[in-house]
Write a structure and sequence with these properties.
heterodimer; A: mainly alpha; MetI-like fold; 13 helices; 2 strands; about 75% helix; flat; B: D-Maltodextrin-Binding Protein, domain 2; 2 domains; 9 strands; transmembrane (chain A); membrane (chain A); transport (chain A)
């Protein structure tokens, strides 16, 4: 008895020692990456938070009075409200359309009967390997008043449209650009997700007499739920931080009608009299919006419990 | 450093600049240009690249409509609109173009009358600004009459005259670099001064857009740097004679205009000695107060113009612009 009780704890102790050693090795491998993430990501985030509580031009910053002055100021900023509205227009129109198209394309390309699948996959994915600025410039040229699109429409007798000069069409061009650039990117995620769906579930549904639309909505989509959630969060995050298209395609014009929040943030910090404190406050509002929307999406999307 | 941003940068980052008082004889530069880099009476910059505004027109197109370049010299904007409409009717070509939502043209009109968007104390004067209202009226007239084509980007703007669909332009003299890329139009261009605003006190035919000045940083060997600038950009015709043909950089330094290189006829401009002319124009440009919040005010005015052209009443659009700038300054 005594021998047993004496050996058991010793064995436990030894096992704990190995566990701890494994643990430490694990942390050792994690440490360099963790330190880097803290240094180049979390530290600047905290610095930005502190900055957002300061006010002043250029390098001459003082604590704001009251501390939340910059945030209070945002409420009265007409341009900020407009850019917030613009960003949500992009979000609400572009993200659902993009995810639906990506889902449909992924489903098509997953069909074993389709010829040249590798080619189509690459072709649709390729736009997101393009430089953001390069594609924005191409879109700007295409939608110029004497550009390709007007030439093409002109062949059918359509009067030239000032695409980038009108608030509605300028936003539409940005949305088109985003669709072109990002649909393929999301499609790849859906394609990967589709590989994990057991074909027997689909075959079973077919046997039960479901048509392909029913199979898609009732069998495929529910099983893709985690991937849809992932892409929705990524797209929301990306759209809220949208900068390049607003900057390179329309310069935010006409009259701030297509400017995004991040573009305005850039203007505040670098183009106008540098007000870094106020700029940091705008960036924190973007952060909070991303966090809140991601949280809501997680709550709606995750029905495991 | 870009002239329009000079005051803003000196005031926001005072630690980065050294006084440039000893780096030049500032009386040898146009007062309006020296003023860009003068803050509280202290010189912080030596003017270099000229932003003197020119009116450049296609003489062949003017001739087709029965005009010469002299008909567009020393005129007012009212004359200009009348004549430009005639040119448009007879040749189908507008005389001007520019980027929609850019206020470059308006800002040149304003400065031609020595007016600005700020008063001497730096308070915005966008609402109830007679010179600004006259400038916007003129601009809207130009656009509505079809003699000013609005495009959406800088490359489209350059394209309008390079591909010959527009027969002239008004901008800083640096635009001549872009004009001369249209080699097929060589010999058909001439340069003159700007139309002046009607009924605005202090209106002239001269203005500027852009241009840049040298600054001496605070960590520099200030004496050495001052001496360098004084014996080069503020004292060497030889330097300006070398860089003019090779890079088209036009001097602000008035004595540079007296040299032979500046007096040489330029074939592209039909044998006109444009560079000497431009240095002379530069001396007559009225000073204006860019102010620290120049870019905020310019953006607000751009937004106002976009709204006015799409039908908003001018007074309310400018009131909005005024409060936008006041907000940005708050």
């Amino acid at each position: 008895m005594s021998a047993l009780t004496a050996t058991k704890p010793r064995g436990d102790r030894r096992r704990l020692g190995t566990d701890r050693r494994h643990n430490l090795t694990g942390w050792g491998f994690l440490l360099p990456a963790a330190v880097l993430i803290v240094l180049i990501s979390f530290v600047p985030m905290i610095q930005a938070l502190i900055l957002s509580l300061q006010t002043g031009r250029g390098t001459r910053l003082d604590w704001a009075d009251p501390l939340w002055y910059n945030y209070q100021r945002l409420l009265g900023d007409e341009i900020f409200k407009q850019t917030l509205g613009n960003t949500f227009i992009y979000l609400l129109i572009q993200v659902p359309i993009m995810l639906l198209i990506a889902l449909a394309l992924a489903n098509l390309l997953n069909s074993p009967r389709l010829r040249g699948r590798a080619f189509w996959r690459t072709a649709i994915f390729l736009p997101c390997a393009m430089s953001l600025v390069a594609y924005s410039l191409v879109f700007r040229t295409m939608f110029a008043t004497d550009g390709f699109v007007n030439d093409f429409l002109g062949a059918f007798g359509v009067e030239p449209v000032n695409w980038l000069g009108d608030p509605t069409t300028a936003r539409a061009v940005i949305i088109l650009g985003l669709l072109w650039r990002w649909t393929g990117f999301n499609m790849i995620f859906f394609l990967a997700g589709l590989q994990n769906i057991d074909r027997s579930t689909i075959e079973a549904a077919r046997m039960d007499g479901a048509n392909s639309l029913q199979v898609f909505w009732r069998v495929t989509v529910p099983q893709l739920r985690p991937i849809i959630l992932l892409t929705a969060i990524m797209s929301t995050n990306g759209t809220l931080q949208l900068f390049d298209e607003s900057w390179a395609l329309t310069q935010g014009g006409p009259a701030h009608a297509s400017m995004t929040m991040s573009h305005y943030l850039y203007e505040i910090s670098f183009q106008r009299n540098p007000n870094f404190g106020y700029g940091a406050a705008v960036s924190y509002v973007i952060l909070i919006l991303v966090a809140v929307l991601a949280f809501i999406q997680l709550r709606i999307g995750d029905e495991r419990d | 450093m870009q002239n329009n941003a000079f005051q803003k940068n000196v005031i926001n980052y005072p630690d980065l600049f050294s006084e440039a008082t000893d780096a030049a004889d500032f009386s040898e530069f146009p007062q309006s240009v020296v003023d860009y880099s003068t803050v509280d009476g202290v010189n912080y910059g030596v003017p270099f690249d000229s932003g003197t505004a020119i009116g450049a027109y296609r003489t062949d197109v003017l001739a087709e409509a029965g005009y010469t370049i002299d008909d567009f010299t020393d005129i007012t904007w009212d004359d200009f609109v009348t004549k430009a409409k005639d040119v448009l009717a007879k040749t189908g070509k507008p005389l001007l173009s520019g980027q929609a939502g850019s206020s470059d043209t308006i800002m040149m009109m304003l400065q031609s009358a020595g007016a600005s968007l700020f008063d001497a104390d730096g308070n915005p004067t966008i609402a109830d600004n007679k010179a600004l209202e006259a400038s916007i009226d003129t601009y809207v007239d130009l656009v509505n009459a079809g003699v000013f084509t609005e495009v959406n980007s800088w490359d489209e703007y350059i394209g309008t005259f390079v591909n010959g669909s527009v027969a002239g332009t008004i901008n800083g003299v640096w635009i001549s670099g872009s004009l001369q890329t249209a080699t097929d139009q060589a010999g058909n261009w001439a340069v003159t001064n700007l139309p002046k605003l009607d009924g605005v006190s202090g209106a002239t035919n001269f203005s500027a857009n852009g241009g840049s000045s040298w600054a001496i940083s605070s960590n520099a060997d200030v004496d050495l740097a001052s001496d360098f600038l004084k014996s080069t950009f503020a004292g060497s015709t030889e330097l300006y004679d070398t860089i003019l043909p090779s890079s088209g950089a036009v001097a602000n330094w008035i004595p540079a205009g007296d040299s032979d290189v500046y007096a040489q006829p330029v074939d592209f401009f039909g044998g006109q000695a444009v560079y000497a002319d431009v240095v002379t124009f530069g001396a007559s440009v009225p000073s204006n107060n860019t102010g620290v919040y120049y870019y905020e005010a310019r953006d607000a005015v751009s937004t106002a113009i976009t709204k006015i052209i799409s039908g908003t009443d001018m007074a309310s659009a400018l009131d909005e612009a005024q409060s936008a700038v006041e907000f940005a300054m708050g």
